[in-house]
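Researcher: Structure prediction, please.
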Amino acid sequence: MVVNKTYPLLKILLPGQPVSERGIEVEFPEHVTGLNEQSNTVEHLYLVTNGTSNKRTLPEWKTDGNTLMYETELNGNIKMTARVQLDDNAVRYSYEFVNRSTITYANLQAVTCVKLFSDFSDTLLERTFVHHANGFDLLASETPGRLTMPLQKWLPCRYLVSYSWPVVANKIEKDDDGITRYNKSRKADKPFIATLSHNKKWVAATYTAETGNLWTNPERSCQHADPAVTLQPKETKSLRLTTFIYKGDLSEVLQLVNREQANSKNN
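Model: Predicted structure follows.
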């Protein structure tokens, strides 16, 4: 369901969950960002926290069967059509961009924040996994101290693992924003991040075909697997990602991801 049409926010509930639950909330997207190659600066075409300062037309929503969609124009010259489709075991997001400007945007992303509350919340990252060449491992396995440190020392933080990008040399970093960033020392070999529900009967896993890294903000147990494209003038490009919500275990979700990867290669 759509819980905010102006600043697009979705809510996903498991079967039987009451509407009063927060469930899984998805900022659709949280922001649209690209490197403006004319100015060589990162430009926020949309940022949810900018509120009314965003230069865009308000989203126009439509429903088509199991698909919700809206259109908006960013900066007066970038048309974005966002779609979300509910399938049996997945929620699929796509963003289509039509560039009517004279600017090339490199590393264009529609950063989609999949926030896990209720049955999936995992502040200490005790049930959040990534997959390596030798199998599944907790995303935060290299930081065992998180389980005993005071919460105010653990939070706020970000936990990241490289996929296509080189592994970050420093395992712990703190940027100017004061947020600690933990970098896993080895790459994930599959582009998804998965979290088990509290009763371990469900898995929520966010996947995309290609991404630089996977990461979470444990304060909201969010999942990030954000793809990127280069968008040149007069071009149309799309970004796609999927959140699998599956009653089963990690091995079964891995099979879903493997099938998805095979299909994307064939297409």
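Model: The chain has two helices and 19 strands.
Researcher: Thanks, that helps.
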